[in-house]
């Protein structure tokens, strides 16, 4: 299975083009007075090298630097720890001058805050600059499984809890599993302790559990290799032939379960600096080298303006708050 490397509808194209033009002009005008940027920009990655967040930032850093109005570098910096909270806390305390930005596991941080974790602020106090990706989820089983539909899982759950494999309770996949199975009326037992999506998929293949709910890019290679089968996607319209989706299942809320990779700066970042960074980020995401990487890697780019990202993050915050009772039980 291959996902399209760039998700853009007509509205986004118009908004992106407008921001690039307006942002560049605004950035240039203020840069003459403020000189931004005058030095290298640190682009924090809240996890160790080698993961998806690391790959996105390293793919985008050089094209973003080229899109800025001054000749500076955008320097990736892995700041791992506390489930992504270490980088977020450093960002929150950073000087709001545009020289420290970060990609964030936004939903993961919302969950961490909900459960009283090590993040001492509301993430919507940060200044949203743009968005790198928006991944939707799929419910998968082993290729050899007799489970063919959500109805099969519902029937199984009436006899015994369906065993779902998931990474740790602080992960977005775990939250997606809790919310998804609740919406689909599937009685479940969630088995955790697996290190990431790959380990979870291997566990499903060898029969540690019946199913898993993971992002579409995370399952793509094993689906292509006919090791894992997609029963349903949480998309409005499934991108997988034969798989059910939020529309056919009559569960529109499934489509709101997403994993975002937004980019933020500290609180109170100046509007002209925000516009300059946002325009450079969007332009970089249209760079042929970046779109080519995304196509090859099966990554889903979702370039959004600062305004669109801010709106989406407030929507996601409201969505997580709505499910606080369910999510806080774990």
How would you characterize the overall build of this protein?
By secondary structure, the chain is an alpha/beta fold. The chain folds into two domains: 10-134 and 258-327, 3-Layer(aba) Sandwich (D-Maltodextrin-Binding Protein, domain 2), CATH 3.40.190; 136-255, 3-Layer(aba) Sandwich (D-Maltodextrin-Binding Protein, domain 2), CATH 3.40.190.10. The chain contains twelve helices and ten strands. Strands 1, 2, 3, 4, 5, 6, 7, 8, 9 and 10 form a ten-stranded mixed beta sheet that branches. Strand 1, helix 2 and strand 2 (74-78) form a beta-alpha-beta unit.
Instruction: Please tell me the overall pLDDT.
Output: 90
Specify the CATH class of the largest domain: Alpha Beta
The whole-angstrom Rg is 20 Å
Total strand count, please? 10
Distance between the termini: 33 Å
Shape: globular
Order of helices and strands: HEHEHEHEHEHEHEHEEHHEHH
Number of helices: 12
Strand content: 15-25%
Q: Which range best describes the helical content: under 10%, 10-25%, 25-40%, 40-55%, 55-70% or over 70%?
A: 40-55%
CATH architecture of the largest domain: 3-Layer(aba) Sandwich
> Would you tell me which CATH topology of the largest domain applies?
D-Maltodextrin-Binding Protein, domain 2
Briefly note the structural class of the backbone.
Answer: alpha/beta
The largest β sheet comes out as: 10 strands, mixed
- Detail the poorly predicted runs: 8-33
CATH superfamily of the largest domain: Bordetella uptake gene, domain 1
């Amino acid at each position: 299975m291959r996902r399209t490397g760039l998700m853009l509808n007509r509205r986004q194209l118009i908004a992106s083009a407008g921001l690039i033009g307006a942002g560049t002009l605004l950035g240039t005008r203020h840069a003459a007075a403020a000189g931004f940027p005058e030095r290298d920009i640190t682009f924090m990655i809240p996890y160790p090298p080698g993961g998806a967040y690391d790959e996105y930032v390293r793919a985008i850093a050089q094209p973003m630097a080229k899109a800025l109005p001054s000749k500076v570098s955008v320097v990736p910096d892995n700041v791992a720890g506390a489930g992504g909270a270490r980088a977020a806390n450093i960002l929150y305390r950073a000087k709001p001058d545009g020289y420290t930005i970060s990609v964030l596991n936004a939903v993961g941080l919302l969950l961490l805050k909900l459960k009283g974790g090590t993040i001492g602020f509301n993430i919507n106090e940060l200044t949203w600059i743009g968005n790198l990706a928006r991944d939707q989820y799929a419910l998968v089983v082993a290729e050899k499984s007799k489970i063919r539909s959500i109805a099969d899982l519902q029937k199984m759950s009436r006899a015994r809890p369906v065993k779902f494999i998931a990474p740790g309770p602080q992960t977005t996949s775990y939250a997606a599993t809790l919310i998804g199975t609740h919406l689909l009326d599937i009685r479940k037992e969630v088995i955790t302790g697996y290190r990431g999506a790959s380990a979870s998929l291997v566990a499903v293949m060898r029969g540690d559990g019946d199913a898993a709910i993971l992002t579409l890019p995370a399952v793509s290679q094993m689906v292509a290799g006919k090791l894992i089968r997609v029963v349903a996607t949480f998309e409005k319209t499934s991108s997988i032939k034969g798989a059910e989706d939020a529309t056919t299942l009559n569960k529109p809320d499934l489509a709101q379960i997403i994993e975002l990779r937004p980019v933020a700066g500290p609180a109170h970042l100046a509007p002209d600096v925000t516009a300059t960074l946002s325009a450079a980020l969007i332009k970089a995401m249209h760079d042929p080298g970046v779109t080519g990487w995304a196509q090859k890697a099966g990554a889903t780019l979702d370039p959004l303006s600062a305004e669109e990202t801010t709106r989406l993050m407030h929507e996601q915050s409201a969505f997580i708050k709505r499910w606080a009772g369910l999510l806080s039980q774990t």
